[in-house]
Amino acid sequence: MSIGLIYRLKQLEILDDEDFLIMDSMMLAQRNTPRHFFIISEKYPQPHIHFVIEGWAIKYKTLENGERQIINFVLPGDIVAIYSPLFQNSEHTVESITEMRLGYFSASLFFETIRKSPRLAAALMWMAGQDERVLEEQIVRVGRRRSIKRMAHLLAELHRRLRLAGLSREEAQFLPLNQSLLSDALGLSHIHAHRIFRELDKMGLIVRTHNSIQLLNLKLLADFADFDASYLEPIANSSTAKTLKSS
């Protein structure tokens, strides 16, 4: 099973050993995928739910002119498009940007499992709620933040998400991102994104190579971006957690 996923779920403190055994029984099927593999294709049915063991992907929508808007980055410990099987077709694409190791299970097994385990269902709903919070922040980031702060804020968010999935501080400082990906995520032209890269580099916040970014001064990066990580913190509502533990 995904170490990152287990790490995230354990922090909720609402699941017991039986729930984790159920998760283990669901997630026996795994596969490796190369870069640029389509895990989910827009406008097609999605019969399986995937969880990320290793690697990164992007979730995006394709515009009429062929350009794309990246909605979110899919990281280790994430569940991919947990609600997609509820709809006839997916409204987005999920494509790997690194080599990945994925676990997967059928939508029918998922629905049967959440029927049997209300605690596990609540934990997975919490993960879906976290995805919604990240999407809300993405809307604010693209719509209202200055361009240089957009990028700094996204980089700080990605680092925090990796840390919450159990990666070490050092591991989470290396992001497999390039100018093109950040342009498509932040609504910036490639020329503008290049200028921002240079500014963040001059400020001593990042070092970039062709296909990766190293984050340097994490506190300064977060302060500069006005980054408040509270929307990402793995804290369940205390009264809800108490109720679920006793169920």
Please give a structural write-up.
With 247 residues, the chain is an alpha+beta fold. The chain has a single domain (3-245), classed as Jelly Rolls, CATH 2.60.120.10. It has helices spanning 3-12, 17-26, 107-116, 118-144, 147-164, 179-186, 190-202, 218-225, 238-245; strands at residues 29-33, 38-40, 48-54, 57-62, 68-74, 79-80, 93-96, 100-106, 174-175, 206-208, 213-215. A 4-stranded antiparallel beta sheet has the order 1-8-3-6. The protein starts with a helix and ends with a helix. The mean pLDDT is 88.
Radius of gyration: 18 Å
Helix-strand topology string: HHEEEEEEEEHHHEHHEEHH
Separation, N- and C-terminal Cα atoms: 25 Å
Number of domains: 1
Assembly state (oligomeric): single chain
Helix content estimate: 40-55%
CATH superfamily: Jelly Rolls
| Average pLDDT level | 88
Uncertain ranges: none
Strand content: 15-25%
Task: Find the CATH topology.
Answer: Jelly Rolls
Number of strands: 11
Please outline the major beta sheet: 4 strands, antiparallel
Defining traits:
247 residues; alpha+beta; Jelly Rolls; four-stranded antiparallel sheet; 11 strands; 45% helix
Topology overview:
Blueprint: H1 3-12, H2 17-26, E1 29-33, E2 38-40, E3 48-54, E4 57-62, E5 68-74, E6 79-80, E7 93-96, E8 100-106, H3 107-116, H4 118-144, H5 147-164, E9 174-175, H6 179-186, H7 190-202, E10 206-208, E11 213-215, H8 218-225, H9 238-245
Antiparallel strand pairs: 1-8, 2-7, 3-6, 3-8, 4-5, 4-7, 9-11, 10-11
Helix pairs in contact: 3-4, 5-7, 5-8, 6-7
